[in-house]
Design a protein that fits this description.
By secondary structure, this protein is α/β, with parallel strands linked by helices. It folds into two domains: 167 residues, 2-Layer Sandwich (Ribosomal Protein S5, domain 2); 211 residues, 3-Layer(aba) Sandwich (Rossmann fold). It contains 22 helices and 18 strands. Strands 11-14-17-10-18 form a five-stranded parallel beta sheet. A four-stranded mixed beta sheet has the order 1-2-4-3. β8, α5 and β9 form a beta-alpha-beta unit. It starts with a strand and ends with a helix.
């Protein structure tokens, strides 16, 4: 007898449908799985066999063939156990085939019949909605996350027995309700905790308001890391669309499912030893890297000059386009990667160049080699270069500054002004994502401002990209001031945040 059920397998940050076909015939007792299964899928036959036996289903010894269609799609992970078990029961006549016709089924089975969580619940629910399924059966820990899409009713099951009773109508389970993931705490660093560094704090406010990339340059212990960790507290909350996108990414790569919709913006701080694949994404079947895990949030690269050159150069595409495409022999997948880059580095190998309290021991060629680790094209894509000097004892003992909540209000007001310049539904309605036409339209210059920016362009030798980024930063400064027109002071402040251009000129 032949039975069918529909399941799903991860594919990048999405899910692809897999039709599970089970055929039971007389013959040598065995379960054979075909259709490009990986090792985890092939091992499901042992999990399914034990789960059915321990749930009281002692199936007759027959030859079972499980086909996973389409046959040319590689099946990975633990998502197919539940569908295989239920289709096997239907093939033996223990479950009506019509109960499986309009449902999508995903879950890993334990040997005792427990249904264990899988990755990508949100992507699976999105797939079920597009396919017009009337219901999705998922492990209970995934249900609150998947229900956030409103694409279709999601039922969380704790065991194979629960799934059977629900399908047979003996004990129907209610649809799950969307919930937020636990552990969405406030940022660890408040601006009020950071003494001094007023210029750096101003740069943080501009970066948060306009979505700009930022580089801190200063000696060890100047507060660069604390400043970077304060940025999430200045950013507005995730919109529903952003939260769904962020949760979908993290759900597919996390060791444990989020358990609900992620409400906090991601903050990723990879070690300088991270590989290019770890930073950008990769693998046989490509998986998202740190740039995609930071989507909608902050990517912090501490000790920027210590990162691998090839890894840093691979940042160019996501910084420019807000996405990254990873090409491998088996697949070419695009991942979202729209984040705010915050980087920090020392001014020289010893870290004390320009520090009045410590003599720099680095010869000029060593300093030049150290700076050369950061290429010009990458620096072009960083809008704000900020020098963070060492603090004096008086500054360290100074009073508290503005708290993050106060600055966040100004950031929210500036972002509200920017949203009016973008069409509804734009993925990043802030100044940093203005294209060349948007810069011309939104950044008109008066005579004084034009003369100032032309002089800076010639003196600093700015590229066309850096020139446009100066205008975008000036546009954000004007938005923070509540002004529609750009003036020379806005341009002057934006130009002062190109310290590396000045030094290299």
């Amino acid at each position: 007898m032949l039975a069918r059920a529909l399941a799903a397998t991860p594919w990048g940050i999405e899910a692809r449908p897999v039709e599970v076909e089970v055929d039971v015939q007389n013959g040598l007792p065995q379960i054979q799985i075909v259709g490009l299964p990986d090792a985890a899928v092939r091992e499901s036959r042992e999990r399914v066999r034990s789960a059915l036996r321990n749930c009281g289903f002692d199936l007759p010894p027959r030859a079972v063939t499980v086909n996973l269609a389409p046959a040319d799609l590689r099946k990975e992970g633990n998502h197919l156990d539940l569908a295989i078990a239920l289709a096997l029961l239907a093939a033996h006549g223990a479950l009506p085939q019509e109960t499986l016709e309009t449902r999508l089924l995903c879950g890993e089975l334990g040997l005792d019949g427990a249904v264990r969580p899988v990755r990508g619940g949100l992507a699976i629910a999105d797939l079920g909605g597009r396919l017009g399924r009337r219901e999705l059966l998922l492990p209970a820990p995934n249900a609150g996350e998947a229900a956030a899409t409103d694409a279709l009713p999601v039922v969380g099951v704790g065991s194979l027995g629960d799934a059977l009773e629900h399908l047979l109508g003996e004990r129907p389970l209610p649809p799950a309700r969307p919930r937020l993931a636990p552990g969405c705490a406030a940022p660890a660093v408040d601006l009020a905790e950071i003494r001094g560094q007023e210029l750096a704090k101003r740069a943080l406010e501009i970066a948060a308001a306009g979505g700009h990339n930022l580089l801190f340059i200063g000696p060890p212990g100047a507060g660069k890391t604390m400043l970077a960790r304060a940025l999430p507290g200045l950013l507005p909350p995730l919109t529903t669309e952003e939260a769904v996108a962020v949760t979908k990414i993290h759900s597919l790569v996390a060791e444990e499912p989020p358990g609900g919709l992620l409400a906090a913006r991601p903050f990723r701080a990879p070690h300088p030893g991270v590989s290019t694949a770890g930073l950008i994404g990769g693998g046989g079947l490509p998986r998202p890297g740190e740039v995609s895990l930071a989507h909608g949030g902050v990517l912090f690269l501490d000790e920027l000059a210590e990162f691998r050159r090839d890894a840093l150069e691979a940042l160019r595409q996501p910084l420019e386009e807000g996405s990254v495409t990873v090409v491998r022999a088996r697949a070419a997948l695009a991942f979202p990667a729209r984040f705010a880059l915050i980087a920090a580095m020392n001014p020289c190998p010893c870290g004390h160049l320009g520090d009045s309290r410590h003599a720099c021991r680095c010869p000029l060629p060593a300093v030049e080699r150290y700076r050369a680790r950061i290429s010009g094209p990458l620096l072009d894509r960083i809008d704000l270069h900020v020098e963070v000097p060492a603090l004096s004892v008086r500054e360290l003992r100074g009073g508290e500054g503005e708290p993050s909540a106060t600055v966040a209000e100004r950031v929210a007001a500036a972002r509200a002004r920017q949203r009016g310049r973008f069409p509804a539904g734009h993925p990043a309605p802030h100044n940093a994502s203005l294209d060349a036409r948007g810069v011309r339209h939104c950044c008109p210059l008066g005579d004084d401002a034009r003369r100032l920016v032309e002089a800076a362009f010639e003196r600093l030798g700015l590229s066309a990209r850096a020139f446009h980024r100066v205008l975008k930063v000036a546009r954000t400064i004007a938005d923070l001031a509540g002004l529609e027109s750009l003036a020379a002071p806005h341009l002057a402040e934006a130009i002062q945040f190109r310290s590396l251009d000045r030094r290299l000129a």
